[in-house]
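Page 37, continued from 36.
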C-alpha cells in the first residue's frame, strides 16, 4: 500500500525521536537567529549572524538556516555621486528669471541631466 520496504518503514519509525530532537534544536536556533536579527533592526546578514552564533558557541552552516527560514539582512545601496561642483566657479545666470511660461512653441527651453542605472552601468 505505501510501496516502501518493511526495513525502510521500521528505520523511519526508529529515527522519529532523533528527528524530533533535531527539529526542536533547529527551531530554538532559528528563534535565536531571529532575536539577533531583530535586535539589530534587521541589518545583520549571514556573516554577522554567523559570527554572533559562533560567539555563543553554536557550530552551524553559514547560510543554510537563514536561507531556509527566509531571514535576510538589509543592504544599503551606495549613493552614486554624479556631480562634483566647482566651488570657485561663478553660478550660471538665470536667463529665464524663473519664468517658465512660454507664450508660443519654441520660446523657452529648459533641460536637466538625469542618471539612470541600467544593469551595472550608469547612463
Amino acid at each position: 500500500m505505501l510501496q516502501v520496504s518493511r526495513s525502510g518503514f521500521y528505520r523511519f519509525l526508529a529515527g522519529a525521536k532523533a528527528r524530533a530532537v533535531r527539529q526542536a534544536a533547529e527551531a530554538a536556533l532559528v528563534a535565536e537567529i531571529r532575536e539577533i536579527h531583530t535586535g539589530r533592526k534587521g541589518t545583520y546578514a549571514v556573516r554577522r549572524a554567523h559570527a554572533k552564533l559562533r560567539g555563543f558557541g553554536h557550530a552551524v552552516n553559514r547560510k543554510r538556516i537563514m536561507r531556509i527560514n527566509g531571514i535576510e539582512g538589509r543592504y544599503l545601496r551606495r549613493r552614486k555621486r554624479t556631480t562634483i561642483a566647482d566651488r570657485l566657479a561663478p553660478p550660471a545666470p538665470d536667463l529665464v528669471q524663473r519664468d517658465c511660461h512660454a507664450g508660443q512653441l519654441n520660446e523657452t527651453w529648459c533641460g536637466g541631466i538625469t542618471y539612470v542605472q541600467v544593469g551595472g552601468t550608469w547612463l
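The longest helix spans residues 16-39. Flag for discussion at group meeting. The chain has a mean pLDDT of 81.
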